[in-house]
Amino acid sequence: MKISKATRRQVNGTSLQGYVTATYADLVKKFGKPAVFEGDKVRAEWMLDIDGTIVTIYDWKETIDVRNVTDWHIGGNGASAVLLLSQILPNARKAF
């Protein structure tokens, strides 16, 4: 499985596909540091290309310190984003 960083342009247009329970430290260990934002809806986001499928992992409207978040959103262009991520993070699950 090939995992690389995706660009903002590649993730543009993705939407919620599922959820994953993981610690911030676990995500950093697997994917490196996230992109950090000063916004009010998303403060940390991993933008990934997994075997050619775009996958994002991000906090959504969390109010606690981002390093304490354990419930993350999974974004993508379809259910394959969750399927691929579940091979890496077993707690990944579909939204619908």
General description of the model:
The chain has helices at about 10, 25-30, 80-85, and strands at about 5, 15-20, 35, 45-50, 55-60, 70-75, 95. The protein has about 100 residues and is of the alpha+beta class. It has one domain. Strand 3 (about 35) and strand 4 form a beta hairpin. The mean pLDDT is about 95.
Helix and strand layout, with pairings?
Layout: E1 3-5, H1 8-11, E2 15-21, H2 24-31, E3 35-36, E4 44-50, E5 53-58, E6 71-76, H3 80-86, E7 93-94
Antiparallel strand pairs: 1-4, 2-6, 2-7, 3-4, 4-5, 5-6
- Output the radius of gyration: 12 Å
How much of the sequence is in beta strands?
25-35%
Largest β-sheet summary: 7 strands, antiparallel
Low-confidence stretches: none
Oligomeric composition of the shown chains:
single chain
- Element order: H for helix, E for strand: EHEHEEEEHE
Assign a percent range to the helix content: 10-25%
Mean pLDDT: 95
The total of beta strands comes to 7
Computed structural class:
alpha+beta
Keywords:
34% strand; 7-stranded antiparallel β-sheet; alpha+beta; 96 residues; 7 strands
Short account of what is shown:
With 96 residues, the chain is of the alpha+beta class. Helices cover 20% and strands 34% of the residues.
